[in-house]
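Progress narrative, work stream C.
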Amino acid sequence: MKITRGRVVWTAVVTCVLAVAVTAVVVAVQLLRPPGPRPAFQLPVACGETWQLGTYPGHDDFDVDLFPTEGQAWGRPVLASYAGEVTAAGVNGSLGGRTPDDPQGPRGRGGGYWVKIDHGGRWETQYLHLLEPPMVEEGDRVETGQQLGRVGSTGDSGAPHLHFEQRRGMRKVETWFDGQPSGITTDDREYTVTRTSGNCGYSGPVE
């Protein structure tokens, strides 16, 4: 039996359409699943350090900017808030030119160097404005407290700090640390709180 080129093309098209449809169904099912229990998130900074958490009008609800209460922010270790799989590690937007040697250099766009982690149960965290390329790569498995990078001011950042988000089912939610809500909720006004890190369980290297 002779198979025409048209039939081969048609079969290939149908196969592609079915594959796309199956993928869409799988993604839809994942998105419709209710999120799992909240992981035991910790502050994404070194054990025992006290940091200021803040927000301001226009920052977006539940976004958190972290600044150390003592010492320089530049280069401080940024740690995984909880174990999971790295789903993004690289550049979000553009880097700009703000560095420790030129802190008033040109701003970039977006989050600059950043990391995103999937913690399972449709929970995710994001870490933005890192100083340099992340110390992890997409697909890496990380543990709570493992170093992801260092605090910087890349992207759309006015000063060295860590911008941090927790997301549940693709929606930002109030960050919780060590089993307690952070207190950073709406961005209707400028305000800050202080919290001390309990991110103390990781025994690997921290630079």
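Work stream C, second folded protein:
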Amino acid sequence: MTDILTLTNGELALDLAPEIGGAITGFRVGDVAVMRETTPEMLASADATQTASFPLVPFSGRIDRARFAFCGEEHRLVPNFGESPHYLHGFGWRSAWAVGPRSENAVTLVLDHDAQGDAAGSWPFRMRAELTYALEPHSLVMTLAVENRDARPMPCGLGFHPYFPRRPGTTLRFRATNVWISDEREIPVRREAPTGDFDFSAAKEVASVTLDNAFSGFGGRADIVFPDLRLALAISADAAFTHCVVFVPPGKDFFCVEPVSHMPDAINRMPEVKDHGLRILAPNERIVASARIAVERLP
């Protein structure tokens, strides 16, 4: 049985499953869920993609055919998402995180990766990740830190993958300069201005679109309104999160708004895309970035 760790602050409560990818299993204001609820059946699956949110580390999105070249070395990873030939979202979401320092309203989870033997198939660089969840009176703050503990430079990206309930009339608004268009392999092949279904510069009903796209030039702010609940969420992300992925699958009762630091498959696109967003960490270098979800009750 999975142990659930709960944080509280005022009206807010956050349930966490450190052993299931460091995932959030519930985020509530009072008795109202503002992220997708994780049912007992979902929890029993021990699958982070069935939870309310999980961290994306040490990169987000897909690596094409689970292979890449970096600093003169060829690397092959073990595909980690069903029948897909790609490698998805790093290994943090498939790992058990250790519980570090904690209080009533904050906790830090820790994940060490030694990259030896079979572990190299998950990521070929030695590293440490720290994931802090903190509840403020009206906000959830999520912070990811990665330290390169390898003797070589390491490519690195960060992100968060929250699932929100797709309720009647739910709207989404954010600004971006471009949207990446993917081919049938789900790998981005071109980008264009965000027009039509891709334009969220004004609030748009989530139910009106079907999307699974990464946006570049993300302005760092996304607003979600649940009219039937009289609640609004404001997602604000550090400058490191230059991209945002929006996932609205057809016929589902959820959608995702994911602040991320780089484009999908960035590790294979660095020579051709100058603003790919991926960071290169020198040995012992560390990157830290946060995203906040503020909750507001509407009149």
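The chain has a mean pLDDT of 97. No further action is required on this item.
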